[in-house]
Amino acid sequence: MKPVIRIKRVYEKSSKEDGVRILVDGLWPRGMKKEEVEMREWVKDLSPSSELRTWFGHDPERWPEFQKRYRTELKKNEAVAGFVEKYEDAKIITLLYGAKDEQHNHALVLQEYLEQLYKNSR
Description:
The chain is an alpha/beta fold and 122 residues long. It has helices at 50-56, 63-76, 78-86, 106-120, and strands at residues 4-9, 20-23, 41-42, 92-97. A four-stranded parallel β-sheet has the order 1-4-2-3, covered by helices on one side. The longest helix has 15 residues, at 106-120.
């Protein structure tokens, strides 16, 4: 069985339905203390490069190009395979992110990318 992958802002309250909670931002979320974030781990290596994040700047007009560039980074990212293997038996994985924009953020791209990898595995 492949995990269900959800995304959620790290600022939202955790729930039992979240399953395994993984922070996937490269930077620690503003205004949050480590004790406040209920999570299994912080996987910085799955986030976009600093250069790509800075270039994107959460500009909706750059969203289509950001998605292409981030997917290219993910294809070359060795941390992805380790993550997929580590959590292949999880029922639910919730990717936590800090961005305010819920329609234009890297967690959406990562969610879709991981779902495709899990679908193609086994």
